[in-house]
Amino acid sequence: MDTPNLTIIDIAQTTAINGTYTNIPIALVNDHVVRMSVMTEPYFWHFHPDSDESFLVIEGSVFIDLEDSTIELLPNQLFTIPKNVKHRTRPNGKRSVNLTFESAGMTTVRLADQ
Fold it and tell me: Which residues on adjacent β-strands are paired with residue 28?
């Protein structure tokens, strides 16, 4: 019997990444991926036709712009965007760090800036 690869991921070390927008996969869970996003600038408007996307804020706060409203997430808050909902994320302040949970094969469709 094969022993699974058991790995501890230190979120604090991962958040040391710098840049305007970094989005890296940190774990696979069945057919889903957990990504760490370090953001200092807005991400572009987009939607996902084949997957919901959940955001969990770790550091700072993040705005999630929807077509008709804006959601602000603070540390330890989670919000799920259903598939096909147009959105963009942007840091509230100089930097935000969040985890996203989504289907590993998810498609992202970029939209013209709104």
Answer: 33
Is the Cα torsion angle 96, 64, 58, 106 positive or negative in sign?
negative
What is the domain partition of the chain in residue ranges? 21-110
**55-to-43, 74, 77 alpha-carbon distances in Å:** 14, 11, 8
The pLDDT, as a whole number, for residue 11 is 79
14 DSSP 8-state letter: H
CATH class of 21-110: mainly beta
How many Cβ atoms sit within 10 Å of the Cβ of residue 10?
Answer: 9
* Order of all β-strands in the sheet with 53-59: 21-29, 32-39, 96-103, 53-59, 78-81
pLDDT at 97: 92
Q: What would the pLDDT profile of 40-83 be if each residue is shown by its tens digit?
A: 999 999 999 999 999 999 999 999 999 999 999 999 999 999 99
Q: Which residues contact 40 (CB under 8 A, 6 or more apart)?
A: 19, 20, 21, 91, 94, 95
Phi/psi at 11 (5° precision): -60, -40
